[in-house]
Structures are given as structure tokens and as C-alpha cells.
Request: fold
Amino acid sequence: MNESGTSLQDLRGEIDHIDSDLHALIKRRAALVEDIRRVKARDSITTVRPGREAEILRTLFQRHDSPFPFAAVARIWREIIAAITRMEQPDYSVAVHAGAGDQAIWDLARNQFGSATPMAPFATSREVLGEVAAGRATVGVLPCPREGDADPWWTNIAVRDGLRISYRLPFTPRGDGRADGGADALAIGRIVPEESGLDRSLLVIETREALSRAGVTALAERVGIKGYPIASCKTGLYYQLLDAEGFIADGDARVGDLTRLNDVAQATVIGAYATPIAEPAGAPS
Reply:
């Protein structure tokens, strides 16, 4: 007994009741899947909703006022979202770039897309892109592009009606304790990017001449797009990957204006992602 007269057995009994309630609520949530599937089919809504997922997790983060680590809360909800998605879409699966035994991208993919979701590792980005393009995987997870990458995979999706980036990982604060801060990744698929309320977009700008990073930034700003270049390469033309503020859709007039500039051969929106949640400094993860 403690000072309040409550025994450990009483506290364990309360925990058992809470566990029972939690389980019942999860089953109740899962029971809505058939109705959700029917409504989505009626209204032509896609099964995978990156924007909606981001909204759910941001709401949880904003109202989380407990010493219980938010990273654990986020992981619980990611597992629920992933399991429900697979109930709606039984063939849902993930292809992961895990070359040279690198576990970091695999860990990000598993944390995001759930422990029960089928996942397969591939040694190259080309293989990941091929799996998704052929429909053998719903989502592909690839390392975030960097300047000087030997394999600038992002140039391969800068085509009309191609695969599109729809997630940046990790979305929620890291809970893996990696001393180096860990890797970042992007997830692609035949998934229509959607707004979450706080987003960034990725554009590939093809130019006839080489441009400095400042030159690429200035070019985009001429049509009202604010962003910064994160990678570039030369494959015939010069390719620049721009990370831009806000949600930019394929039909955005600014992209058309960008294409019409003398310096630009082509501009393509290759996706968008919800801006990751950043925990305040010193907050428990």
C-alpha cells in the first residue's frame, strides 16, 4: 500500500482496464475500413493519403502534453495507419534502397510504413524505381538527393505522369538515438501528392547552361517560387533539383512561366511532401 491506500494490484487492474479500452478502440477503428473503402471508391479518393496522415500526426503532436515520449506515440499511430491502409489495399508493399548493408533507410521505411507491411530491400535506386513503376511495390523509399551523388535517381522521374514523391522521412522526431542524426529519405509511388497545410515541393529544372546554386534560386524567384537547390547533374542538359516552399501542383501557372524563361528547357514538379514535425529543443523524444 502507498500513502493513498492504493495497492499495486489496484494500479495493475486500472492498467488492464485501459489496455482493454485501447484494444476495443483499435478494433472499432478497424471496423470502419469497409465503409471507408466504399466511400473512397464512390468519390474517387485514393487509398494512400500522405496529407491526411500528416494532419493526424500533427494534431497528436500539438495536444501531446505527457512525459510519455512523442516518438513512441507517433510510432503507435504509424503502425495503426499502415495496418489500416493494408486492410484497404491488401497488395500494399514497399521497396527499399538498402545498398551496401546500410540499415538507416530500411529503419526509416519500417518506422513509417509499419512492421506488418511487406518490405523488400534492393541494392540500387534503379531496382527500387523499377519495382514501383511495374506495380510490384506500392511505395519506394530512396535516400534524399545530395549534391555530387553518383546516382541522381530523381532525374528518372522528371517525366509527365511519372512516379511522384509523396513523403519525406522521418516525418516525426527521431526516436532511434542515432548519434549522427540519422539518414533522411524520400518515398515515391503512383500516389497523387496532396496538401497537408504545411508542405514543400520538389521541382526538376532543366537548363541549357550550367547555373550556380544562387542562379537556380534567382531563376525560380523570377516566377514567384521560393526555394533552394539541393542537387544537380548533367545528362545532356543540366538538371537542377529545387526544394520549394509550399504545395505546388502539376498545373501551377508558375511552373509554366518557369518553362517559358529563355534559360529553361523544361520544368517538372516531381512531388511534394508534408514538412516534418520539429520537436522543441530539449523536448523528450
Remarks:
- The beta strands are 94-97, 119-122, 139-143, 164-169, 185-189, 199-207, 227-235, 237-245, 264-274.
